[in-house]
Amino acid sequence: MKLYMTERSGNAYKPRLLLAMLNVPYEKVVLDFPKKEHKQPPYLKINPRGQVPALEDDGHVFWGSTACLVHIARKHGSEKWLPTDPAGMAQVMQWLELAQNEIHYGLQWARGVMNKIKTGNLEEYQGYGKTGLEVLEGRLRNNQWLALGRPTIADVACYPYVAVAAEGGLKLEAYPGVTAWLKRFEALPGWVKRV
Amino acid sequence: MKLYMTERSGNAYKPRLLLAMLNVPYEKVVLDFPKKEHKQPPYLKINPRGQVPALEDDGHVFWGSTACLVHIARKHGSEKWLPTDPAGMAQVMQWLELAQNEIHYGLQWARGVMNKIKTGNLEEYQGYGKTGLEVLEGRLRNNQWLALGRPTIADVACYPYVAVAAEGGLKLEAYPGVTAWLKRFEALPGWVKRV
């Protein structure tokens, strides 16, 4: 199994976390982000979207963090990290969707603007990010984990950019359920630092 | 099964299409979009993100188009519309991810700006949308369907906003694989018009 990634990418951090938690060995292919290797033809053959992560396994390439998480969870995580019953799977999916929406073009883009790696409307992105944090807090105020009574790929998908929300100007102090969940997540066996 | 929706929402159109194609009866709960009913407390209890669609079934509520599609496909579509083997499921998921990214904040947002229901940087959104269309074209030039050799929820998720890409200023003439796929999709048994 080969993971195309950069060390700093929060999206590539998602499969890295799950692989570490499941103790699955894999080969890291680290792209040169400053040289825009992810936007050059050789890599675009692997992932036409020009982003990391992508995962090569069993003769297939899967691009995008959700596809990577789903492949790893289904192959190595049994039903624990991604159940296949209709209600359980849909409950996991709704948080993966939050990760792709309010967390991505909210928290992540706000951080991108503040870190000067992206241009755009900071206030708009912070507004989406705030909605995302409120939705997370609504769940985590009275629950330990996002989708089910145990950690799933929903938690893995939401964690990386929530953990660095402050870099986008959104303070986590107002969200005690979220901050407690971040600590709980970081205490899981196999958890690794991003860089 | 109750579907919270508006008639015009492309995201709500996704589960409506799948329910129609699978011939599953359901109750429509149509929200008053101009009166912002989707942003008022009674609905926010159902979907804290303040968006449509949401699906109520078996004592659960699932919000977001991906979660709705996954629930319906797993409950009523057997392995056909969403397989559960690691590679098959991940191949479907990568297109659901495109639908949540380049199609959503590309095609959909560009259309939103041009239809004056959203503010923002039209050129930026069109740029993302163009990437999305190119990725779709790369697949559909030599394949009939997005994820596998048959229609899956990947096609259902990508179809609604690609079908109206021209409203966001992106002409589909340059993408013959995509336009042929749109026609193929519209010929599937059970296909319904949005409005």
Quick structural summary:
2 copies of one chain form a homodimer. Chain A is an alpha+beta fold and 195 residues long.
Please provide a written account of the structure.
Chain A is an alpha+beta fold. Chain A folds into two domains: about 1-75, 3-Layer(aba) Sandwich (Glutaredoxin); about 80-185, Glutathione S-transferase Yfyf (Class Pi), Chain A, domain 2, CATH 1.20.1050. Helices cover about 55% and strands about 10% of the residues of chain A. Chain A has helices at about 10-20, 40-45, 65-75, 80, 85-100, 100-115, 120-140, 155-165, 175-185; strands at about 1-5, 25-30, 55, 60-65. A four-stranded mixed sheet of chain A has the order 2-1-3-4, with helices on one face. In chain A, strand 1 (about 1-5), helix 1 (about 10-20) and strand 2 (about 25-30) form a beta-alpha-beta unit. Chain A is globular, with a radius of gyration of 16 Å. The model of chain A has no long low-confidence stretch (mean pLDDT about 95).
Number of strands of chain A: 4
Q: What count of domains describes the coordinates of chain A?
A: 2
Poorly predicted ranges of chain A: none
What percent of residues of chain A are in strands?
5-15%
CATH architecture of the largest domain in chain A: Up-down Bundle
The CATH class of the largest domain in chain A turns out to be: Mainly Alpha
What is Rg of chain A?
16 Å
End-to-end distance of chain A = 21 Å
